[in-house]
Structure prediction request, 242 residues.
Amino acid sequence: MKAVADGERRDGKPVGRRVVVAMLGAGAAGVVAGAPVARGIGNVLHSLSARTESNLAGLVPGGDYFQLYTVTNGFPPEPADYRLQVGGLVRRPLSLALGDLEALPSTALVKPFQCVTGWRVPAVHWEGVALGHLLDEAGATKEAKALLFRSFDGVYTESLTLAQARLSDVIVAYRMLGGPITREHGGPVRLYVAPMYGYKSIKWLKAIDVVDKVYPGYWEQRGYAVNAWVGRSNSDVGAPIS
Prediction:
């Protein structure tokens, strides 16, 4: 899952500012009036999206459940050919097939997915390997300060500090919604960062590089917050960062 930037279409072209403002106003009305109004707004926005080649429902709190966005048309290998590379400032670089990840101690979570544009999916079932466990397996060196994540699409990147990466609800996920993660949802393997907005949970995870500083990710280079806490201050764990 990845949230498209406010006012940007799937193809990267801007949505008109007046349309965005109007849709956000409608979303606020849905929050105040309750779920039935929000669902009605979502239906209207899906119809409008089909005519404008944009996905405006993702701009509205409660406009829909999962909204599926990408910044490219790239996809990862089939599950049988998948490998996750863990390298950079580590003593033991890793190259892990999907089966290797599944053989490691697993972490199961039931947590929401919150998009920065306002919609939220509650009580999503996730399963994967604690990111902190992978860091222990690789053995970060003393110069290590942060992680850089890269997607198989060749464009999307994300970042976390080491402290953020070691939170108990940050996992390298291979299952969600009761089954293997589909390609559309970022499978076969994606990151899930429970306490942060969805754009931190990079889809189609290809590589984890342990690095000496934070490198802002794809959307952070376009104005989004580097520390994307949901309902928490940026002075919390691992922030501020430089």
The chain has two domains: 1-69, 79-222. The first helix runs from residue 17 to 33. Residues 1-69 form one domain.
